[in-house]
Design brief:
single chain, mainly alpha, 5 helices, 0% strand
Length: 72
């Protein structure tokens, strides 16, 4: 199960990073699923993902504020 979760985490991380470049693909949901997979499989991989620039830019505020922000 550990290797399956790591594989899924890597896959969702790659899709999330591609989503940061392509405007049609969302980034946040894929990185959130990757964090869940990594946190269930390995503390080392979770720490790596949480410290990436893309995670900090797209997911950190979502995680801290418990949702998306509304733009006025």
């Amino acid at each position: 199960m550990k290797y399956f979760l790591i594989t899924m985490g890597v896959l969702f991380t790659i899709i999330g990073f591609v989503g940061a470049i392509l405007p049609l693909l969302p980034t946040t949901p894929f990185l959130l699923v990757a964090v869940i997979c990594f946190s269930k499989s390995s503390e080392r991989f979770e720490n790596w993902l949480v410290n990436t620039k893309i995670y900090i830019a797209y997911v950190e505020s979502f995680k801290n504020n418990k949702g998306y922000t509304l733009k006025n």
